[in-house]
């Protein structure tokens, strides 16, 4: 089996193949970026630039989103399902269902195969390319995230969540309130806009999220009618902002407004007071505990590495009960819900 190492800075290193996964150090030849959230993008840019043999790979939508968010280093685009072949390994990216462009990396080598999920969601978020595991190929080692890896997390269906969003919007508007959807600017905002696309109301999105919407549209995700947030015309629209936007004055002039906090973390009642929300909608971009166990059982890896979890004990115990070898890999990570 291949060695799997926690990176010094962030991400994971496969030293025998000189691969870094969501990695920032310049001591590898290949870096694969799973998706465009800040906690997965290389941060050590100066040293990456100086290391001329290093190549950064990601999917075309992730590359577009990274560039819009200010990433200036060269990126080689590797579309889903296309295999990159080197002397030592083959790598193929599979859709991870988390945000647009999010990819799982499947690495095949003479010393064994590894699947790295990055952040993932099954069933896939409707504003992504889907979720798909490698077929008819053994996964010897699986590195999987467990942000919501506790049995208290069991998500409602996408249809149910969509009707929760629609009801919140319609009830607020009918009562003369402006509905505000709280969620992060890349991924969650576009997912909600897509789910609300048929409401005949203009959407206005926070200025930092607005340019990212064009990439979603370019890849065929319908976001309905939307504009950049404009204070003067925002009242009575559907509004989308992260919590930090509210703190810096977003919609502060609107007296009659209602706020929905939309995140996996919305399953905690305490978030209501923390976010000043009138409604909590547990819409997550990560797989829940039960799907996590299902993926592991389906793949039957020889070893499972659990990452990004608030508490690894329960999930490790559950996997071991099912005859699967599982360990916890404690990598530096800041999770959006
Ligand atoms: Zn993410
Ligand atoms: Zn993440």
User: What is the molecular shape?
Assistant: globular
The DSSP helix count reads 9
Structural class, please? alpha/beta
Proportion of strand residues = 15-25%
CATH architecture of the largest domain: 4-Layer Sandwich
According to CATH, what is the topology of the largest domain? Metallo-beta-lactamase, Chain A
Contiguous uncertain segments of 5+ residues: none
The CATH superfamily of the largest domain is: Ribonuclease Z/Hydroxyacylglutathione hydrolase-like
**Strand order in space, largest sheet:** 7-8-9-10-11-18-19
Record the SSE blueprint.
Elements: E1 5-6, E2 12-14, E3 19-21, E4 30-32, H1 45-50, E5 55-58, H2 60-68, E6 76-77, E7 83-85, E8 89-95, E9 103-109, E10 112-116, E11 141-145, H3 158-174, E12 178-182, H4 188-195, E13 203-205, H5 210-218, E14 226-228, E15 238-241, H6 243-247, E16 257-262, H7 271-275, E17 279-281, H8 289-299, E18 303-307, H9 313-321, E19 326-328
Parallel strand pairs: 3-4, 4-5, 5-6, 10-11, 11-18, 12-15, 12-16, 13-14, 13-15, 16-17, 18-19
Antiparallel strand pairs: 1-2, 2-3, 7-8, 8-9, 9-10
The structure holds zinc ion (2 copies).
Residues 35, 37, 98, 119, 336 line the site of one zinc ion.
